[in-house]
Write a structure and sequence with these properties.
Strand content: 15-25%
Mean pLDDT: 92
Distance between the termini: 20 Å
Helix content: 25-40%
Radius of gyration: 13 Å
Shape: globular
Order of helices and strands: HEHEHEE
Strand order of the largest sheet: 1-2-4-3
């Protein structure tokens, strides 16, 4: 959903990652609330891209947060905040993290 060129620029740190949130250890609903508040705050600060760390999930499973984060990013509450997202490069957490780009206010 993120344009490949932008994803490449983030993974190579040509474009800055303005902030990060780690959702490890939160329950599903708390993680969703934390993510929403973080992204709305990031947009208010004028940030362009952030890293969302979801974790890998247990024993090869997807993990509740990792499995839900796409749905949360598509939610109506974040439609005016999130412009795109893509899996992070290995050096930024690989399968356990996502780049999220934010819309300008």
């Amino acid at each position: 959903e993120l344009e490949p060129r932008r994803q490449r620029r983030l993974s190579r740190e040509r474009d800055p990652i303005d902030g990060r949130i780690d959702l490890h250890g939160f329950g599903r609903f708390e993680a969703e609330d934390q993510l929403r508040a973080f992204l709305i705050g990031a947009q208010a600060r004028g940030w362009g891209a952030v890293l969302v760390i979801t974790g890998q999930g247990r024993r090869g499973g997807t993990g509740v947060i990792r499995g839900s984060v796409h749905e949360w990013l598509h939610a109506p509450a974040l439609r005016t905040v999130v412009s795109g997202f893509a899996p992070a490069a290995r050096r930024h957490g690989g399968d356990g993290a996502i780049y999220v780009t934010l819309r300008r206010r």
